[in-house]
Design a protein that fits this description.
Number of strands: 21
Helix content: 25-40%
Number of helices: 13
Strand order of the largest sheet: 8-7-9-10-21-20-17-14
Distance between the termini: 49 Å
Oligomer: single chain
Strand content: 15-25%
Largest sheet: 8 strands, mixed
Mean pLDDT: 82
Shape: globular
């Protein structure tokens, strides 16, 4: 019996070895099978695809860092793109310009310890890099603690001031200007005054830096004097003053009761005086316009929108063939009227002052405009004109008397001039001008910031023309970001977006590839 058992065991042993050998041979056979080959190819394809995705992301990151203009801005307001005027101006630069930001880039992008609104620093960083993408512009971040000798070259900057470490320096050749960072961003001033912390609400870095570039690259500084002393308020002309500063004009307030206009000034602005100029002030102004017979001066006069008695000013205007109407202009034409009859579009009427205007198809508009009457057409001419359903309502007419459009009929005129210019020439055909713009709202901050209208472009172009500066107008509005739009607005978002494209998406692709491989193997 034992012999039988031994024989049976002996007989079963080879069978077990065969089964084991079959299993072993079966695994190697599977590796050689068509199914395994297909799975291997699929795995290789997935692995190669993942590598390509990672490589593309890495190369794209390097390229957009090296060439900022390759970045796509998918925000509805194009918050991370330079404005058209900026790009055009920078592309025509003839002088090399260097922009120094006096801090580490990482510190700058983090908001410099801002209480809120640090996303505007990331936005500013992108805009600066877009500027530096132009041939003539270089951007450098300088950490003063690591470069203590950097300040030695810039002797006109007070390096002991509180703002010394928060500056942007714009340099071209031997010229440079320092821009405090708090001038590059909009912030809640009440919060800063009360708590001493910055809550940023927008960035002005584009207009601030471009103003700096204009300043250091302009070969000749053009002076403009704003006349004070007749009840003018800076809050009414402050926006126009800022706009001219942004276009590299040297602007100064001059009180005609105690001072004279600068002989070097080519333009003077009298903006919404509430009382008449004295005879002495008018004589100073008249003498300045005559310029000892040399001419070459221009007065911009913007009357206020209420009745004033100004016989001295009126006499000066009459010498230049003009008068300001006693009342407010209106327009009822659907083609021109905007929100109400006192707010309407205008037509350009003098080619001399629109020749270099970037887009003549964009109109200007006025509100509560005085009509500028042409008394002597040999001396004066219209700058802006409207000839459709217009008129002038005298100040003596009470507003309650105007209830319907029919009530306006008796005040209608053939045409009105919201702006006009009078000129006197010498024997050498050099001119001095008085330009009257009848609407002081026309150059208010809100109207100048409306890029869908040409108010800002027109007045800058006008000043460029009368001062022979050519087409140098740059009108830049403040930039902001909208959290509801797609865009990179803070550091955490940058990290999140990077993680998604460099990490999450490739992992998802890998998982999908493995699932496909396993399913195919099971089958």
């Amino acid at each position: 019996m034992n012999n039988e058992l031994n024989n049976n065991q002996t007989a079963e042993t080879p069978e077990t070895e065969v089964k084991t050998e079959k299993k072993t041979n079966g695994f190697f056979a599977f590796l050689k099978s068509r199914k395994a080959k297909r799975g291997s190819i699929a795995t290789i394809i997935v692995a190669v695809f993942i590598c390509i995705i990672i490589l593309i992301n890495y190369v794209a990151g390097l390229l957009t860092e090296r060439f900022p203009n390759l970045q796509f801005d998918m925000t509805a307001s194009q918050s991370y793109q330079l404005q058209k005027d900026t790009s055009e101006y920078l592309s025509k630069l003839k002088n090399d310009v260097t922009i120094y930001v006096l801090t580490r880039e990482s510190t700058f992008k983090s908001g410099l310890g801002a209480s809120s609104g640090s996303q505007y620093f990331i936005q500013a960083d992108k805009l600066l890099k877009k500027m530096a993408a132009e041939d003539k512009v270089t951007l450098k971040f300088i950490d003063l603690s690591s470069n203590p000798t950097f300040t030695g070259k810039y002797t006109n900057i007070d390096w002991n001031s509180d703002n010394a470490n928060n500056l942007i320096i714009v340099e071209s050749g031997k010229n440079y200007t320092a821009i405090p960072l708090d001038e590059c961003f909009e912030y809640d001033s009440e919060s800063y005054n009360y708590y001493g912390t910055y809550n940023y609400t927008g960035t002005k870095i584009e207009q601030a830096v471009i103003t700096g570039i204009l300043d250091v690259t302009s070969t000749e500084k053009v002076n403009i004097d704003f006349i004070t002393g007749s009840g003018e308020e800076e809050k009414t002309y402050g926006a126009l003053k800022t706009l001219l500063k942004q276009n590299a004009y040297s602007v100064k307030d001059i009180n005609l009761s105690t001072q004279k206009l600068r002989a070097s000034s080519k333009v003077a602005v009298l903006y919404a005086p509430t009382v008449d100029l004295s005879q002495d002030a008018v004589k100073k102004l008249s003498d300045w316009l005559d310029n000892n017979g040399e001419k070459g001066k221009t007065l911009i006069y913007v009357p206020i929108d209420v009745k004033t008695t100004t016989p001295n000013l009126d006499e000066l205007l009459e010498e230049y063939g003009m008068a300001v109407s006693d009342g407010l202009s209106f327009c009822t034409s659907n083609e021109y009227m905007l929100q109400n009859p006192y707010m309407f579009l205008t037509d350009y009427k003098n080619d001399t002052y629109t020749a270099d205007l970037k887009d003549k198809n964009i109109p200007t508009f006025v509100y509560n405009a005085r009509n500028v009457e042409i008394k002597d057409s040999s001396t004066a001419s219209s700058l802006l004109k409207v000839e459709s359903s217009v008129g002038v309502i005298p100040f003596s007419v009470d507003a309650s008397e105007i209830k319907t459009e029919a009530d306006l009929e008796k005040y209608k005129k053939k045409s009105i001039n919201p702006a006009a210019i009078g000129t006197k020439s010498n024997t050498d055909n050099k001119d001095s001008n008085i330009a009257v713009f009848g609407s002081f709202y026309m150059f208010s901050e809100s109207f100048l910031n409306m890029t869908s209208y040409n108010n800002a472009n027109y007045i800058v172009n006008f000043c460029n023309t009368v001062t022979n500066r050519g087409d140098m107008g740059i009108t830049i509005k403040s930039a902001g970001t909208d959290e509801k739009e797609l865009g990179v607005t803070n550091t955490s978002t940058v990290i999140a977006v990077g993680t998604i494209f460099i990490g999450v998406i490739p992992v998802i692709i890998l998982i999908i590839g493995l699932v496909v491989f396993i399913r195919r193997r099971i089958k």
